[in-house]
């Protein structure tokens, strides 16, 4: 599974990260906060949640709006 990280510039393309790399980050620090782009499907983010909850981790996700437009948001994910 590949997910897109949040953009650092409004007009840039999002970078991709795979499940293996996310898992390594969480194992290394025991917790992680990640920001994902709005182009990710909600279904993929729920699959990510199922993966980490299956490993006994806590998973918290919310939408963060950074502008007035309806499409100016990103997903904030906490994995503990």
Give the key terms.
2 helices, two-stranded antiparallel sheet, HP0268 domain-containing protein, 5 strands, 3-stranded antiparallel sheet, 80 residues, HP0268
Question: Judging from the principal axes of the Cα atoms, what is the shape?
Answer: globular
- Helix-strand string: EEHEHEE
- Helix fraction, binned, reads 25-40%
Q: What is the straight-line distance between the termini? A: 20 Å
Protein name: HP0268 domain-containing protein
Pfam family, one: HP0268
InterPro entries: HP0268
Domain HP0268: 1-80
Short account of what is shown:
By secondary structure, this protein is an alpha+beta fold.
List the helices and strands and how they pair.
Layout: E1 2-4, E2 16-18, H1 19-29, E3 32-36, H2 42-54, E4 59-65, E5 73-79
Antiparallel strand pairs: 1-2, 3-5, 4-5
Pfam family, one: HP0268
Protein name: HP0268 domain-containing protein
InterPro entries: HP0268
Give a structural overview.
With 80 residues, the chain is of the alpha+beta class. Helix content is 30%, strand content 31%. The chain has helices spanning 19-29, 42-54, and strands at 2-4, 16-18, 32-36, 59-65, 73-79. A hairpin with a 7-residue loop joins strand 4 (59-65) and strand 5 (73-79).
